[in-house]
Prior knowledge:
The structure is a homodimer.
Chain A lengths: L21 E13 L3 E8 L2 E8 L6 H7 L6 E10 L8 E12 L13 H6 L1 H4 L3 H23 L3 E2 L5 E2 L11 E4 L3 E5 L4 H9 L4 E9 L12 E10 L4 H31 L12 E3 H10 L12 H15 L3 E5 L12 E2 L2 E5 L1 E6 L2 E8 L4 H10 L4 H8 L9 E7 H8 L23 H7 L1
Parallel strand pairs in A: 3-5, 6-10, 12-13
Antiparallel strand pairs in A: 1-2, 1-4, 2-3, 4-5, 7-9, 8-9, 10-11, 11-18, 13-16, 14-15, 16-17, 17-18
Amino acid sequence: MQPTPTLPRTLTAVLGEHIGARVRVCGLVEAVRDQKRMQFLVLADGSGQVQVIHEKRGEADPLAAQIAALTPGSAIAVIGRVASAPGVKLGGLEIIAETLELHSLADSPLPIAPDSALEKQIDWRAVSLRRPDQRLVFRVQTTLEAAMRDWWLARDFIEIHSPKLMGTFSESGAEAFKVAYFGERTAYLAQSPQFYKQMAMAAGFERVFEIGPAFRAEPSFTPRHETEFTGLDMEIAWTADHHELMALEESWLAHAIARVAEVHGAEIRERLGAEVIVPTTPFPKVTLAEAQAIVRATGHTPAKSDDLDPEGERRLCAHIARATGHQFVFVTDYPASARAFYHRRYDDRPDLTQGFDLLWNGLEITTGAQREHRYDTLRAQAIERGYALDPLQPYLDFFRYGCPPHGGMGVGLARVLMALLGRSSVRETTFISRTRPSRNLGAKSDAKKVG
Amino acid sequence: MQPTPTLPRTLTAVLGEHIGARVRVCGLVEAVRDQKRMQFLVLADGSGQVQVIHEKRGEADPLAAQIAALTPGSAIAVIGRVASAPGVKLGGLEIIAETLELHSLADSPLPIAPDSALEKQIDWRAVSLRRPDQRLVFRVQTTLEAAMRDWWLARDFIEIHSPKLMGTFSESGAEAFKVAYFGERTAYLAQSPQFYKQMAMAAGFERVFEIGPAFRAEPSFTPRHETEFTGLDMEIAWTADHHELMALEESWLAHAIARVAEVHGAEIRERLGAEVIVPTTPFPKVTLAEAQAIVRATGHTPAKSDDLDPEGERRLCAHIARATGHQFVFVTDYPASARAFYHRRYDDRPDLTQGFDLLWNGLEITTGAQREHRYDTLRAQAIERGYALDPLQPYLDFFRYGCPPHGGMGVGLARVLMALLGRSSVRETTFISRTRPSRNLGAKSDAKKVG
């Protein structure tokens, strides 16, 4: 058995309530200073940090020897008395050490420094995520998702977990990962929960949400793309059109961002230098045609006539921010040519979809649309794309036995955090990054680096 | 554009508040009865059902023609006046139809009947999930997960989303699905979030949870196994041993089950014939050695000397239920030979792990353990298993730069629902089933079935 604690653990954040008392603190060593007469160490736990001191007792001083042997990162528990120390930055107190348990001695030196490049921070997540500013990203993620779910639950949404192993691909085939399924057939990793959240609509679930992984074999390496990312998805039945969906999304986002501002606003400002601004509703809205005119007027010609490119998205958001002071803008009514075959089109404008994207500070965070729920029309739009119907048939079958009108959207969690926290890459707001090249898959090449 | 609603939608559940008023109800047709003078249809939405009636007006009666053409499953909106009708089972009211919008006409007949075999129910989820008893399973899932998250959030857990694409396998290799990663290398689908929730411990996150998919290339087809399932995972730092973990799990489960009983207890009894019993804590606990003695005493010899087989699990739970009246039992202290190499062993009994399983009504729903957090010991235990260290090195590296003692558990969501709702297969409590054989992957074979 490992040593049984003689005292229950006290978190460093509440030590102020224990001045004069003996406590047991547990955490990782942040720094050790071994001076002639005194030893100082900083211990960090999930709640904060504390300075621990020990006055050397000359020759036979096993505690001094223990402290002298400590390395940054080592996991220890210290029992000692809490003393007021107005001069000490960390809470104006310190712990006078009595005993120390060493649970894990860290190799020295650590493989990365606080100022190492992002690439190295990602290679050594177990070390880089110890930084309070990096852990904050995932505390914010926790609060953000909880607030989003509260919004969904208050509106009777049903939570689903759709399968990630599929018999066909849910978006375009080019970016689907292939899985060998018992040597019986090839399965594909879901690029989104699209097909199955629509199936839930046919099943009469009416309102569903899912937070889960999505997989895209993105050949390109950009600050906005991961080959695996966490999608925030919702689908709603009996929506009249995409404007109803956008109204829902802006309400949902404003609610979640307000919660983050309330819980973490000050710490985000202090640690990340970002200001969380709770958006007003409704959000600004422009059609793609209007968006392109705005972008062209800034002197940039979008790469495609039926879509916006990243530069165009940045310029559009900059224009909207100047004109309205708003960080968000919905871009609506994309040409059918630029959207998935299942996006609903206007009855009187079959070349235009009831699809929308949401941009935040120049970054696309959402793609959504009213869906085509009519079997014959959906089938015709698949044929028009030149898709083979046989593999699509199980999806098309969802619509053969009755399906209400519906729509929904998919939102990238890491992109929302990137925009919310003013980060420059989704890699900073993703727990474990997955990209091409595959060096960060936990590959042998990594093992060799540390061999 | 599709017809703009002339009235906002009213849910059938609240029609009682609208007697005498004109309303718009939206849903799927459950049944149509076309009589000489009268037409009756039952419309179902997410909140309930209502009877809609129409008195035929002889020759020129387009509404009568619309109703006559309806098929079960068709998606419609009806505008009409709500009338009190004490004789009518569905809420003692009916809607006298004025206009009807047909949004989607269902093929007839439906591919399955309410009494079709489970296999067919699973083949046609878009239809089978329309049954209120089947939808209830996922409404319960929604409530259960929300309550579990509330418990975690009240205790400062951080929510993580660990990658499902891995460079090596997280459990035993035999059951890992292989993914071609850009033709550069082979990736594996995560069999659990094990490695990365432990990495979070080394990173000082201290308490994490994740709800997400796990993938096991289960060659066998049993009522307890899916090749893809939703895992409920948590990991906690600074735990003294597995008894601390079991105390946390029973508190977490009791909280979540109490919430389900409160919100859905009556409906679960009525629709599924199951009684939700909120467990008392602590749960009964036996060591594996004790469990095997109990099972042998019932006249069954477990297939393995270091584990329980399904029959043994059923007999143990039956015994505990008789002896204590409790539906749950923890089985602890498994031999190292039966557990993963990362399970912590007793310092004075290196052949025994601080690992546990939780059984509920004869079904294993949890595997958990205090983990081995010491790099050298963990590495030695991997070598003892004969594992190649090179692919494991990125995992082992998590422990090289300091890691607190920790432990955690993984719980199968569909199994919890199976035990909670008294179902006989996880297929009934899984949104979309994934098993071998691969017929239910949305395969071409399905398409052929419906030509």
